[in-house]
Amino acid sequence: MSLPIHASGFEKINYYGLRVFAGLVLFFLIVPILVIMPLSFNAEPFFTFTEGMLKLDPEAYSLRWYRDIFESDSWILSIKNSFIIGIFATILAVSLGTLAAVGLSSRYMPFKGIIMGLLISPMIVPVIISAASMYFFFSKVHLAQTYIGLIMAHAVLGIPFVIITVTATLVGFDTNLYKASLSLGASPTQTFFKVTFPLVRPGIISGALFAFATSFDEVVVVLFVAGTEQRTIPREMWSGMREQLSPTILAVATLLILMSIALLLTIEVLRRRNEKIRGVVNQN
Amino acid sequence: MSDQESTIQQGDLTDKEIRKSLKKAERNHRVKAFLLVTPLIIFVLFTFIFPLGSMLHRSISSPTLTQYMPDVARVMQDWDYEGIPDDEIFKTVAAALVETRKNKTIGRVANRLNSEQSGLRSLMTGSARKLQKYQGQDFKTYMIELDDKWSDMETWGAFKVLSNSYTMTHYLAALDLEYGPDGSVQARPEAQRIYIDNLLKTLKLSLIVTVLCIILGYPLAYYLSVLPQSKSSLLMILVLLPFWTSLLVRTSSWMVMLQSKGVVNSVLIKLGLIIEPLELIYNQIGTVVAMTHILLPFLILPAYSVMKSISPDYMRAARSLGAKPANAFFKVYFPQSVPGLSAGAVLVFILSIGYYITPALVGGRTGQMISNMIAYHMQTSLNWGLGAALAGTLLFVVLALYALYNRVVGSSELKLG
């Protein structure tokens, strides 16, 4: 936005005021994430910048909290668990969710509204309610404190995201492409893998990333449903934060931030690519 | 599709037959679409809807008395608050007390009664011990002699309330109500009223968070929407990165920043603005600040996507027709941006009402919300019925708000990222 030449004094104040305000809000959004990273290299167990750190004294920085993570059995276990549960929950959510999304975007689908509401509900119901419900029910059917139980619980929380992202890609899907492929002699299976799937893939992948991030960040269900063996990274952080906040938490947090940056970049690249594919399709 | 077309091409079919085969084809499509969704429906029903239903069932079920003292439950169903029960009922109760003491289930019944009317646990266990040795037949006189609580209407009211396997007591308790000695619904004593206050506090904090998100998010979304694409997508990263960052990471960084020796206090002291560190955490301030930060992207993203679609021509037209800038903004631009703003605001409000993690970690004693209360009853006090009723109440509020959200935006507009 540039200021028009005819702008009055009032508008100038508004314009610069808006810029400053927007800058401050962006600062508010990003500062907690920026602060935690350097503090995780603090040589002292403090949660503020020491004199040495401000002077950029190399002595004041250390990797001791990172070493702590990788020397602790419980952190290692929780990292392993987070990945195992996250990956399997994602596979479950994406496979069931994509099938369902294909059905849901058919114009013949009966009771679409009700079924959509049902499948989206895990996203709307407050997680404490879901967690408590699952705890009671899973205890009854012997799924509490098992990996399978936790994977199922996390998958169901991730499903709404898969449904939303995949149906969004399917809504814009040009069925003529599918028909063209069939009319040119491709079998339905070939058509699916050569035409449909590549076009829907960005939606599936971003749905999968959402589902994985949901599971990877989830703690309330873990608190209720998991046993000590299934402790995940957020569960470990949670107990660390409840008892005595240690700088090790900041080191873990920094690693998680790096992961979210990677996730964000992937999603962004996918979105651009999706737009590009769409653009080409539309021009044709 | 193909078989239906080929039938039509045969030419000499009647109207009826064509319609019939069309219908058949459509039904096939419908069945096919439904079959694709079926596995997921079954999965969601099993892992989510059944559990939810069984918890809601727990909030109205009250099986203790009917299970462990079925005779007492039966006689109490006939009793209708007409005065202290007769000797027959006393006799039934006495027999049940002695029997449950023998098979060691008395504790459960006593605990359950105690949650209706405090003091009944000791009454039950104490009387049962004495009654074991009682040889006489005049149970009424003997029991009232043992403890005059047996002549209180409140005691019998508690029995009456539990005599049915379904009860509204948990919901009444969740709304600070109870059954009075005559069976009517009344407010709880002042000292025991906590849940309405907690619900109001939850709504108040959620409203504050929502308003703060609007104040901070609306101008930023506007600014981002008028910037050229290259600049705005760069700045958008600053909004999206917190959005993608783990909730616990963001909460822990606020714990670090707001501590009495944390970054915010150190900076303020260095600047000479304050002398003593402020108490910014383990109270409502901590909850509000951290939740506003966490939920802000949920307001900015929908607001931004709507604002992006508003053409600047409208504002230019309004200005060229002589509207003052503020006037043009509020009369022309603002109404067009309302759908995005309200979608974001309702979303933030819904999410904050059910928040658990952040208040639990940075809320201290005063910053706890209804979710924390539910967790407390589920994990610590083990009063599951009450916890379930609180959950049912919260669920009702959230679903009502979601229905509102749907009317405002329509669920098809739900977008991510």
Account of the protein in words:
The complex is a heterodimer of chains A (284) and B (417). Chain A is an all-alpha fold. Chain A has two domains: 9-60, no CATH class; 73-243, Orthogonal Bundle (MetI-like fold), CATH 1.10.3720. Chain A is built from twelve helices and no strands. Chain A has helices spanning 9-39, 51-54, 64-71, 73-104, 112-124, 127-140, 147-171, 175-183, 188-217, 220-225, 233-242, 247-283. The longest helix of chain A is centred in the C-terminal third of the chain and has 37 residues, at 247-283. Chain A is globular and about 75 Å long. Helices cover 73% and strands 1% of the residues of chain B. Chain B is extended, with a radius of gyration of 31 Å. In chain B, helix 1 (2-9) packs antiparallel against helix 2, helix 6 (106-116) runs antiparallel to helix 7 (120-131) and helix 13 (247-258) crosses helix 15 (284-308). Chain B has helices at residues 2-9, 15-60, 64-68, 70-78, 87-102, 106-116, 120-131, 139-146, 153-162, 169-174, 195-226, 229-244, 247-258, 263-270, 284-308, 313-320, 325-353, 357-362, 370-379, 384-409, and strands at 177-179, 185-187. By secondary structure, chain B is an all-alpha fold. Chain B has 20 helices and two strands. Chain B has three domains: 2-60, no CATH class; 67-163, no CATH class; 196-413, MetI-like (MetI-like fold). Classes of the chains: A mainly alpha (284), B mainly alpha (417). Chains A and B meet through helix 1, helix 4, helix 5, helix 6 and helix 7 of A and helix 2, helix 11, helix 12, helix 13 and helix 15 of B.
